[in-house]
Design brief:
Helix 1 runs parallel beside helix 4 and helix 2 (about 35-50) packs across helix 3. The strands form two sheets. A four-stranded mixed sheet has the order 3-5-6-4, sandwiched between helices. A two-stranded antiparallel sheet has the order 1-2. By secondary structure, it is an alpha+beta fold. It is globular. The protein is built from five helices and six strands.
Length: about 140
Amino acid sequence: MSELLSEINTVRDTARTCGTVSMPKALPLSWNAALASAATVHSTDMATNNFFSHVGSNGSTFDQRITAAGYSWSAIAENIAAGNSTAAATVAQWVASAPHCQAMMSATYVDVGGSCMYNANSTYRYYWTIDLGKP
């Protein structure tokens, strides 16, 4: 997932407008194993159970998944995407969506973990999740 981290940090390295909100350049994020674990749980769930939502098939929310993964947080966010086979295309999709772009650009967040899971028999085949956090 180093490509995913690199793509996100490249986005954060340039001030941009997310929807109608001007976002300043932000410091790079650090990869966090607990956030990556929470993201993997959710991407796997979406790919395995063929759905696309922030709510897990068991009713879990991203804050519950992140806490269960052991990340002690004061602020968190989650971006999901489906259908793209590359990190670059996925991050570009998030940049084009105001709330996803704002989450990636927010200087509040210092950590990120992400995952992509593939299932040839599911609707979108590729399911992406990033969880962003601040301890």
